[in-house]
Amino acid sequence: FLFHLPSALVVILTLPIAIIISFICMHFLGVSSNIMSLSGIAIAIGAMVDASIIMVENAHKKMELWECNHELYCSRLEVIIDAAKEVGPSLFFSLLVITVGFLPVFTLQGQAGRLFKPLAYTKTFAMLFSSFLAVTLTPVLMTLFIREGALSKVPIIKYLFIIYPEERHPVSMILRKLYEPVARLALNYKKTVIIIAVVIMALTAYPFIKLGTEFMPPLYEGSLMYMPVTVPGASISEVSKLIQIQDHILMKVPEVSQVFGKAGRAETPTDPAPLEMFETVVNLKPEAQWRPGMTVEKLKTEMNDALTIPGVANSFTMPIKARIDMLSTGIRTPVGIKILGRDLNEIERIGEEIEKRIQEVPGTRSAYAERVTTGYFFDIDVKREAIARYGLTVKDVQEIIQSAIGGMNLTTTVEGRERYPVNVRYFRDMRSDPEDIKRILVPVMEGPAPATAPGIPTQSRITQVPLGELADIKIVKGPTAIKSEEGLLTSYVYIDFSGRDVGGYVDEAKKKISSLKIPDGYRLQWSGEYEYLVKTHERLKLVIPLTLFVIIILIYFNTKSFAKTLIVLSAVPFSLVGSFWLLYLLGYNMSIAVWVGIIALAGLDAETGVVMLLYLDLAHERWKSEGKLINMGALKEAVMDGAVKRIRPKIMTVSVILAGLIPIMFSHGTGADVMKRIAAPMVGGVVTSTILELIIYPAIYMLWKGREIRKVEEARSYGIEKQ
Question: What is the distance between the alpha carbons of residues 246 and 248, in angstroms, rounded to a whole number?
């Protein structure tokens, strides 16, 4: 765009310096270098050099005027200083707006806060220091580099060191030929153009309504977690058989490289999983080895269809995500319902009714309500009168039960550095049935045996009594686990779905269960990913308007005009046109990552709007000071001068921003899904914002300034009539 290598160096040199200072601040704040923190620099890298680009281009324009008329300035240094002073304040405020615009991200809490705050820190630091360097270092570098030195006379490379006038600059000539007829047409039909723009913005409501909502885009971890559940009461042998069947089915999927299943809980109090809950880690092959067109969602659907086993409710997630979700909300599926109340039986009844209704919602892959009271237990109730006849205590009977059924550690064997407990209990075949347990023998002392000979002491006789005579043994139903939240008993309904966004699915599911009568003292609470979504939206609804108010104040301090502030802010709805349409075409949902991108886009819009308005103001003031601004025709030419003749810096800044964002859209691998959601609204918004600003801004500006011209013309005509 510049065709002048030293000027390009001025722009490039500010970039690594701002990034290095940002890394220094990250170090002192303890922000690590990770995917998200580096992504903050990636999405800011285009906007970081915008100020330097505009300053350098303005210096080129001033140098061109100085070459034509040396009486304007005394020296080259004075030219460059004046060029920097002309655009410096507006650029500093515009970059400050970009920095302030990211404040809502700092208010995010929980999972979203931990994920996006490193990105917000690095982007804020990068923009803050780039705005500082733009008004300090860039003018100094301009005085050193923007000149035609000895290299401009070397035959082969001289074209890289010559400062071309804008009229002879090849890029400027092409841009002017393309833009001038469009700008002139817009100024000829100002109101029509503005109405068309409003209609386009109104039509954007269609893709916005069609966009779904979700908390976070899927962050693919390279493996899946298959977490089915079955009804309580399955034996260990039956559960082991089920795991083997599931693993065998999963290994038939071509994309699966390894499967490892687990049932029950590990020997740790942090894993209170019941026996009926399975956890199977499915390691996948690299995506390059997948079948053409295969995606993670298609894999889940294929596995779910293959794993249709009676009595088993399937759900799929990812290992790390599952642990985070279970620790934070207790719900391992994308959406869950917590039923809170006083009685477990009533809670279970409500859960089973919800399960039936949720399965009717389109997109539901599985719905499973916990069977809270359907655990099966051996209840051994010691008959105190019976044991009293044999001189036994309850403790005596319980010790026999423990040693026969539960097992008793007698000693520990040492095998080198390894130690193993030696446990004694009945064989499984002798304790697997209530009738077998009734036949467990309890030793009873019957009293001294009759003496066989004088002088020989007598010994007590030991008799074996069946346990069934000393206790009532039966199988009873009861709760397998009791959970409580907020002082109430709680049960969960796990819901897994596919092909739909979280917000839309929950809204339809709420309608489905709205007719369910919930007794007094009981209530439902939607949880899982949806809980995060609601909390974050509530916070953003409060913070974003406050941030927008601060941005309006900053722009007003810069423009000193409420009308100019409104013109600058009109870039925001223009940019949302491209954002929402691109999100709709890509099939993305409105997530926290998308909102982060839109927040970043609002700052960029303010910057491009300020720059566009600055060029129009400069042209207007120049024509006014020269006394040329006498009628509407002159105003039109002044607006054309500010819009058409300064097309190059505007296209340069937009091109640099897109150059930093478009590679993200083609990225692949860990973290790419999140970054694409951030970059997509920025890419679409920057494109439509630029197109609409180049066409609409001149028309709005001419309508605004035209009122002043008309007042002058009316006053002039009134004076003539009076004479």
Answer: 5
